[in-house]
Amino acid sequence: TDLAHIRNFSIVAHIDHGKSTLADRLIHSTGTVTDREMKEQLLDSMDIERERGITIKAQTVRLEYKAKDGETYILNLIDTPGHVDFAYEVSRSMRAVEGSLLVVDASQGVEAQTLANVYQAIDADHEIVPVLNKIDLPAAEPDRVKEQIEDVIGIDAADAVMISAKTGVGIPDVLEAIVTRLPAPSGNRDAPLKAMLVDSWYDAYLGVVVLVRIKDGVLKKGDRIRMMANGTVHHVDRIGVFRPGMLTVDELGPGEIGFLTASIKQVRDTSVGDTITHEKKGCEAPLPGFKPSQPVVFCGLFPVDTAEFEDLRDAIEKLALNDASFSHEMETSAALGFGFRCGFLGLLHLEVIRDRLEREYDIDLITTAPSVIYQIHLTDGTTMEMHNPADMPEAVRVDHVEEPRIKATILVPDDYLGDVLKLCQDRRGIQLDLTYAGSRALVVYDLPLNEVVFDFYDRLKSVTKGYASFDYQITGYRTDNLVKMQILVNDEPVDALSTMVHRDRAETRGRVMCEKLKELIPQHMFKVPIQAAIGGRIIARETISALRKDVTAKCYGGDVSRKRKLLDKQKAGKKKMRQFGKVDIPQEAFISALKMD
Ligand code: GTP
């Protein structure tokens, strides 16, 4: 296909504003899928599950559209992950296309996630077509939302396309707008191959599937290609496009988007944003701006049952094969035994991995509180990167500590503004901006990531009854007065409960943690003191009084089966506990103790 007849685009939208519904409409109204075609186009053996697997991961699709000018165009839609954790992946997908549809729910208006993603599109020099969705809803206020798009984002919304992805109204206008308002890609067919690795995932039948955008040159089956980031060479055994099933093609030329397979074993061997070229006569310089995704949030994962350590190791290694942005190394904790210190792109990523370990691999886990990366500058002039507060060197060796900061963008209805400002202030935030868009405030704060990784988002949702939207990006490191706070249970430090805190807030935090732990740790036959300490100094203290009676005491002589039931319950409860010294600490204590509400 010649470049003038290609349009590449992505859809930018807040969750639930209708991105998937619109994509489905575009696929159906261009006749990309008829049942018969779908069958013909799928590779080799047909397998519903496999087809599902593909469509879940690759929402990339190639549409053929006959426009009003009588010409047929190839429209390539690339899906972008919606969540902040994957900001780098979003920015790479954006660089693979020339334009975006900005979908805004006409009954809701612009949200924080819309903003973050649309700025990425602007950074990637996209032409942006605003699309107002859900105009069928009685609550839709297209004029107000148009104004808001202009005020808040600063792009012209006069020609916004009005649609209902649900009823199909306006879909032909979207297709025409893609052709007439978005630019065609540029590229040189005769230049050496230069392709961007946009995404990759594991397919049980095909191995690793790599999504590519060709910038220059031509990619053919049988080519030997080189990944420029790590220099590895692969033999391309299949290339194709998504319609939306996989359809093999002979070649992919400039401006085109498609996939390749090359007997690559692990997703880890491919890096999003990398440049792919030919082994021989390759391009000289890679595409600019490549950086591997770096984990920013770390936590310990330990099996509840120590006997499950090897199972956990296997499961983590399997997951890591197909997720290059997830890191892990073995860790031992005096309190929790053997486990892993794992790194994630953000909290959602952490939750996804933890859930998969528990559900797919059936391992009960203790997750320690998430921590960020600290730069510890030592008095001897060296610097260490610290992922775990338990590794904090003694205070005398530490010159100063730097922590990561973020720029947080929050959109919130006026009524809740006060609560949001208070929350940000409580979390050591510095206000950068506060503007209004209709009846909603746009708040921008500089915040320590440390204060956000834990329960900030939950708190934000609860103080605004779910009406606030939130997004963030990491801006850099800054020095602050940070110290390690230890928790001692029954006079012994519990390493998994160590945290980094700001010195000015240490006492309050310490007091809250001791109170929480007092509630969470059950009574024992003896008194259990709980203390918070900085260095050797105790800053807060609570005591759990000793237990007087046996639970079964009240059943003396009575019903034996009832007594057995109670004992069984105790046993089941025990399993969820970690014995620490002589004290049993319930699993949830390792997380709940840190919540600050
Ligand atoms: P995620 O996949 O969660 O990111 O959401 P999304 O942005 O892809 O939104 P999706 O297409 O799943 O739509 C969200 C909800 O809005 C669904 O319940 C849709 O049925 C509904 N919806 C989408 N478009 C319209 C529309 O034009 N009108 C109405 N009334 N509802 C719509």
TrEMBL record:
Q: How does it sit in the membrane?
A: Peripheral membrane protein
| Location, primary (coarse class) | membrane
EC code(s) of this entry? 3.6.5.n1
Q: Catalytic activity annotated for this protein? A: GTP + H2O = GDP + phosphate + H(+)
Top-level class of the enzyme under EC nomenclature: hydrolase
Extract one GO molecular function annotation from the record.
GTPase activity
Residue ranges of domain Tr-type G in the record: 4-186
Q: Which InterPro entries match?
A: EF-4, EFG_III/V, EFG_V-like, EFTu-like_2, G_TR_CS, LepA_C_sf, LepA_CTD, LepA_IV
One GO BP on record is: positive regulation of translation
**Residues noted as binding GTP in the record, renumbered to the chain:** 16-21, 133-136
The record's GO CC annotations read: plasma membrane
SUPFAM superfamilies named among the record's database cross-references? EF-G C-terminal domain-like (SSF54980), P-loop containing nucleoside triphosphate hydrolases (SSF52540)
The record's section on Gene3D superfamilies has: 3.30.70.240, Elongation factor 4, C-terminal domain (3.30.70.2570), Elongation Factor G (Translational Gtpase), domain 3 (3.30.70.870), P-loop containing nucleotide triphosphate hydrolases (3.40.50.300), Translation factors (2.40.30.10)
Q: Where found?
A: Cell membrane
Superkingdom of the organism of origin: Bacteria
Its keywords, alphabetically, are:
Cell membrane, Elongation factor, GTP-binding, Hydrolase, Membrane, Nucleotide-binding, Protein biosynthesis
Q: Which SMART domains match?
A: EFG_C
A single Pfam family it belongs to is GTP_EFTU
The text of the family note is: Belongs to the TRAFAC class translation factor GTPase superfamily. Classic translation factor GTPase family. LepA subfamily. Belongs to the GTP-binding elongation factor family. LepA subfamily.
What the protein does comes down to: Required for accurate and efficient protein synthesis under certain stress conditions. May act as a fidelity factor of the translation reaction, by catalyzing a one-codon backward translocation of tRNAs on improperly translocated ribosomes. Back-translocation proceeds from a post-translocation (POST) complex to a pre-translocation (PRE) complex, thus giving elongation factor G a second chance to translocate the tRNAs correctly. Binds to ribosomes in a GTP-dependent manner.
Identification of the protein by name: Elongation factor 4
What species does this protein belong to?
Pikeienuella piscinae
